[in-house]
Amino acid sequence: MQKNRIINVDNSINSGQVFLWRKNGKYWYGVNGQDILKITDSGTIKSYQNIKTDFFRKRDNIEEIIKSISKDAITKDAVKQYLGLRILEQDPFQCLISFIVSSNSNIQKIKSSLENISRKFGKRVKFDNQEFFLFPKPSKLAKASIDEIKSCGVGYRAKFIKEAAKIVLYKKIDFETLQKDSYQEAKEKICQIPGVGNKVADCVLLFSLNKLDAFPLDRWMIRILEKYYSKQFQLETKTITEKQYEILHEKIVKHFGPYAGYSQQFLFKMERENYQKKWL
DNA sequence: CGCCTCCCTGGACT
DNA sequence: AAGTCCAGGGAGG
Q1: What is the number of H-type helices and E-type strands within chain A?
Q2: Cross-strand partners of A30
Q3: Is the CB of A240 under 7 A from strand C?
Q4: Helix (H) / strand (E) containing A29
Q5: Within 13 Å of residue A52, how many CA atoms lie on the same side as its CB?
Q6: A20-41 b/e (C-beta count within 10 Å ≥ 16 → b)
């Protein structure tokens, strides 16, 4: 059972959860809000600011979680193949902006847009003799003009970013409260933010607000459900409407249990690797 | 409620 | 070389 505790840093970072990361030699470096994290291949974190974080969610009882989500052959296979893949716990504001930017986009483009945003609006710092840009604070993006934000390559999402930053800045949405809320409560609140629908909301909830029952349903996950789970979750229509998303999520949690979000991560990783999609 | 169209960018293909 | 096509979520009609 001890082997289950191993963290596979490469797989965890290369699984569509985070974007502002690069590998330099044997270390991964990444921007996490107002901090820069440096990760060794065993998963030990040294950081620029030493802001406390459980980035790899070491507090989770991963043996228990794996046991809980291994409900069928496909999941068991994905878990076995990518043992050590973890859900990462990110800075909520950066996570929110990242997934607003992600809508109608792909990993390469999201990465470049976010790098532009950090470079343009974030504070430049030196860490380990390398240059980094922290993720901009809400106040900075709330003050920025739409055109300035657009110049980062985010297109029509620029106004969503500015509005989201304002909502966070003025505490109309408070991440600490969302942490304590139930999945349903937190989701309803976060979906009020422009540019945040079901899928983006679930990413933010799962990757930064400790909601392990969130299960982001993007094109890839729908494809996976159609391919492997058509009997369990029959998908009648081509387009996933809001109502259907909700019904599907209920079925998914019923099948995979309270840690469904972890199963999503394993399945997503497996399928994208099968199609040899590029990561960071 | 479901369905349609538009919003942008960048890479692939022609 | 310039044009067309496409992937990818959310909002509004």
Answers
A1: 14, 6
A2: A21, A37
A3: no
A4: strand A27-32
A5: 0
A6: bbebeeebbbbbbbbbbbbbee
Q: How far is CA A206 from the centre of its chain?
A: 7
Q: Are A110 and A98 in contact (CB under 8 A)?
A: yes
pLDDT at position A53, please? 95
What's the confidence (pLDDT) of residue A3? 57
Alpha-carbon span A170 to A173, nearest angstrom: 8
Average pLDDT, chain A: 95
Looking up tokens 């082997």, which residue turns up?
A3
- CATH superfamily of the domain spanning A2-208: Hypothetical protein; domain 2 (1.10.340.30)
Instruction: Please report, for chain A, the start and end positions of each structural domain, with discontinuous segments joined by +.
Output: 2-208
Helix (H) or strand (E) holding A39: strand A35-39
Per-residue CB contacts under 7 A with strand C, chain A residues 1-20:
none
User: Which two structure tokens, joined as six digits, stand for A216?
Assistant: 């982001």
Q: What is the DSSP letter of A127?
A: E
* pLDDT reported for residue A276: 80
By three-state DSSP, how is residue A130 classified?
A: strand
Give the span between the Cα atoms of A141 and A170, in whole angstroms.
13
Q: Tell me what pLDDT residue A240 has.
A: 87
Asked whether residue A105's C-beta has any atom of DNA/RNA strand C within 7 A, the reply is yes
**Distance in angstroms: CA A173, C1' C10:** 19
List of residues 6+ apart from A210 with CB closer than 8 A: A89, A179
